[in-house]
Request: fold
Amino acid sequence: MAAFTASCPPVPSDEQLLACFAAGRREALEELFRRYRAPAYRVAHRLLGHEADALDAVQEGFVKALTHLDSFRGQSSFKTWLLRVVSNAALDLGRQRGRRETVSLPGAGLGDGDAGGPAVPDNPTRGLERADLRRLLDEALATLPEAQRRTFVLHADAGLSYREVADVLGISIGTVMSRLYYARQKLRAFLAERTGSL
Amino acid sequence: MSAHDGEDRDDLPPEWLAAYADGELTPAECRRVECWLAEHPEARADVEAQRRLARLFEETGVAVPGEEQWSDALAAVQRNLAAPRVRPADWRRRIALGAAALAAAAALLLALVPNDRSPRNSVPVSEDEPQDMAEEAWPVVSADDVQILSMDDRDRGALVVGEPPVNEPLQLLAADEVQVNKAPDWQGRVGRLHTPQEPGAPVIMSLSPDSDEDR
Reply:
């Protein structure tokens, strides 16, 4: 990242970066992108199940968020605002293109061991390769209603707190808790059925 | 799943256990859960299962792209941001289209509301869905909140036309959730359904005096 001047300090806040971006500072965009590209991508990938589509959603999300900054009134953080726009973009993209099936069919693919790293330690699905386990989790996620899936992904993959998830989705914390609870019940039931545990 | 999902937890909302496992409760709430767990030690397995599930997703997180892909993505963002925006002269057209979209939403709602004026009852709700989800609805926006930047002329006929105000929350329904009676609106028009090709996609209804495909 290029050095910022006095108006854009060396470790600027998001608000300062947005002000710099509004003033036409190219490096402000680069820094905002660097800060939030990873959580945005994780959310988009889990919602779309496809790498290229997820990158498209991240790009579209950044463009929309930054071209509609007038709608961002600073009541939430830029991160939660961006993740709201990115997750909307991902869901829109998914509807347009149809969710590409990257997960295995029921019962298929477990243990075929493609390059996904070692088995995940200390988990009830012991013995599954990491890539197989990831596919199984994606498959489980795909069974959730959209609202629950989105809530769960924002918490589990973007690492947002309940308060932040509530801000992103414009719902109460109680609704976040409720959605997460029901999402987990379904995920656990799905995984228990497939793996016999959890 | 634990056997403690039902009536045994009358004194503790079940979602509190998940929030407790996530460390999302206040200290006072944590103490309440811990007191409850002391009286229901068998439910600790449920808490541990919540934590295992969280770890599972954490440990199998999506791998992020490499620097080269990020650079390409950033370049695409910069190109898009540098592209010319809609000209000011287009504002009137955009507002008009926004108003049309609002009218479309109004007509969709009016067309889908049965004669007994009980639209919420017309949406089937899964028994295992929490009530607050069932009651959530898409917000109705004003014309100022809508921007349609471009539209193919062929799509204009698919827009719903009607009259605001909308007094009820708008709900988008899939084809298999809707049964539309051939009740004409106040202008004698009958709704025409544009059924989506993809399962689960929302239905669009337009009002046309010469419609013969309504159902």
Notes: Residues 45 and 51 of chain A are 6 Å apart (CA to CA). The radius of gyration of chain A is 19 Å. The domain at 12-102 of chain A is CATH 1.10.1740.10 (Rna Polymerase Sigma Factor; Chain: A). Confidence is low (pLDDT under 50) at residues 99-124 of chain A.
